[in-house]
Design brief:
The complex is a heterodimer of chains A (about 210) and B (about 675). With about 210 residues, chain A is mainly alpha-helical. Helices cover about 60% and strands about 5% of the residues of chain A. Chain A has a two-stranded antiparallel sheet with strand order 1-2. Chain B is mostly helical. The chains are: A mainly alpha (about 210), B mainly alpha (about 675).
Amino acid sequence: MTEVSIMIRKQEKKMTEILVKKTHFSMGEIERLLHLYREKNGGETDKMDRTLFREFLHDCFDMTDDILMDRIFKYFDSVNDGCINREEWIMGLNVFLKGTEDEQIDYCFTIYDLNGDGYISKEEMLTMLKTCLVRQGLEEDGDEGVKDLIEMTLKKLDLDKDGKVSFSDFESTVKAENLMLEAFGPCLPTNRTGEIFIQNYMDSQEG
Amino acid sequence: LIIMNSVVSPVSYSGSPQQQEVKEDIVSSSEEEEEEEEDAAADMKTLTSGGGDLPQEFWQVQKLVRYLKVGNQTATIIALCNLADFDLKAQYCQVAIIDAGGLEVMANLLETDDVKCKIGSLKILKDIVEHPDIRKSITKMGGIELMVQILSDSNKKLKLHAAESLAKLAKYKKGRRIVRKNNGIPKVVDLLDVDNTKVENCIDNNEVDLSLDMQVARGGAYALWSLCKSKKNRMLIKKAGGFPLLAKLIKSKNISLLIPVIGTLQECAAEKSYCMAIQAEGMVQDFVSNMLNDNIELRRHCASAIFKCAQEEETRALVKSNGGLEPLVELIKDHSNHDNKELMAAVTGALWKLSMSDDNVKTFQELELVPVLINLLKENAEGLDDLQFNLGKIQILTNIVGAIAESAKAPQNRETIRETGGLKPVIKLIASTSPGLLVNVAACIGQMAEDVETIEQSMQTPNPAPSGLDQIRNLDGVRLLWSLLKNPNESVQAAAAWSLSPCIRNAENSGDMVRSFVGGLELVCGLLESKDQQVLAAISFAIANIAKDKENLAVITDHGVIHKLARLAVTQDDLLRSKLAEAISNCCELETNRALFGKAGAVAPLVSYLTSVDLEVHRTTAAALHQLSKDPWNCVTMHQSGVVPHLLRLIGSEDEAVQEAAADCLQNIRKLALACEKFRYQHNKA
């Protein structure tokens, strides 16, 4: 092992010790996730770019929605420097894979709040749900169904009746009906993909 | 529907059985009722026929169904959540879904891999399957099979919602059958398997619902409750290990969980095996303690459970020792409960069965139950005309009269009934067509016929009401009772016959009374042709009492009673044997009958009765043989049948009457033998 890599390992150990306290992961799990980071990152130690990250989301979690995957990248990239370092990786996966109900509500809201202004607006909903209904072909305004559905959904979510969905609107609705958590598109692992991922990459491989 | 397990003991004569099954043609579970009682559900025509516009919600529901059809997974979830906000139990909503073709979508969603879609669909199905067309369609589409499959999924929320939907669908026979055929019962039972600690930690709080595990158990319990309306399912539930799980859950303090658990248990208690298990497992105590709960529905199910389990003597004692008698009496004394027909049926039923034990009757006496019962009877017996169709009322009346009949085994209660005018409403009920009710009415009258005026009584109370028997006669009760012999139901016939005996035995001018019933004696003799053992025994006993009057004996002899009795003599049934022997014995008061019995072949079978272990059989047979032995030819038959060793044994009996009868019989045989010897000696000499 080169001197550099020894240093890197030492550094990682320190990071792991800090991160274990901040997340729901165990030491072993963090180590294995860091290993995975190296793998997915093509060896690069500390900067995963958007493309590689989206590939990761697609490969491991079957995600295909560009808009949402972009938002997820932005969520992980908390310092907003255009790439995901190891710490951001672990902190992001913490919520992504093992978030509590509150953490996940917070996560989803952040994802759906496209412009980050603290509200999910009708326009943002339209952006995310544009293709959610199969076009009927003969409709003049192809968006009519979607707009109608959005109208109903807004009514359901907008508890303080101000025409947009605040965090507390969202939180209250989801707590009452958990199915609404990913109302505007899948941004968390499904049961199945989550389980498989944990099995393959997080569980100790010692048999 | 009516639960017809058993009938009150007909007047407890020695040898008469404590219980008998009431023969019913209708099925005793609630299965048949559901299929018939459905009101025509609303469909498009009925909704639009009023002429008014359809509500706006109707169109919104239809739009959402359309989005379901053309949406991706995200749209589907949103649409399902939006749909769930509507009043899904409202018919316009259900019709909107049907009309928009929503059912197939819902069913298809159940087949996908997507957990959220499945949960969303189940949540809606649970409510809309209350509409009969939806229920039938979903069933036809294989929805039930899909839900049963879902029960195997590891996701708890999914299992919970599947169980809740199945609970609705299994309310109908077809649904229950499909669940069973698809091996659904063990899967539902598994839902109830929770940690002991989880059960104990279940707080009873309206704010916080149960933990997810307990919710799953509760959902499973509701499904079981629906499923166990079928007998086959009840047995399968037991086989799948459901009982110990229910026993665990019943220790919980949470009412929302207890209701389906106890609801299931009381339904299953239709099976004796469950009653025995409940007894052994100490669950009677749980029923009693939960009867003190404020929740009226819970109390009702506990009372129902006790009603059914109190078939067993030990359970009856356990209810008393756990302090269960007082709360039941309290419930019935509380007038605010009287409108709750289901509660009344359960409580009166429990009181009825519990009264089968003398110990309990004593306690009930102290609690002054009988006057309350009589008032309740008067309350409920009004409006006789619509009685025939009001099954709920009939059940209540059956139970009340049953309880009164059992209580009337105690002389003090007979006095109470006599003094408070309890007989009149009872006798009025003879007009009913319900076999269960009639059996209890007959039993009640029979018990009260033991209430005969004694000199002491007339001296003690200043203005006593006429004796029970007198009251019965004044109300034309004996004739009405006699007419029940014509009832097509055999249990009714038997109960009436049993109860006629004390009337005949205790009445003044009994002979005249009996003769006054036109065609009565012929009717009685005719019933000796019945195929039913109970009827035969009861009629034989009645004949034994009738025959005590010389004139009537002559009449029934004319009706061919001798042959009919003789024909029955070959029976192996001890109850019938003892009553038959008594009848034969009394019929021999008419000398000529003795030879007739002999010729009709009654003697030899009678001898074989002595091989029985039943003491009552011995008593009456000894007396019959004694009477028969007054005819020499009968002595020959007896001797040839090997009666002597039996008689010798009987002479050593503890019962004096048996000793005497046996001794006299033997003496007659010896006399004859001696005379034979003498004759032969003289003949040989000549």
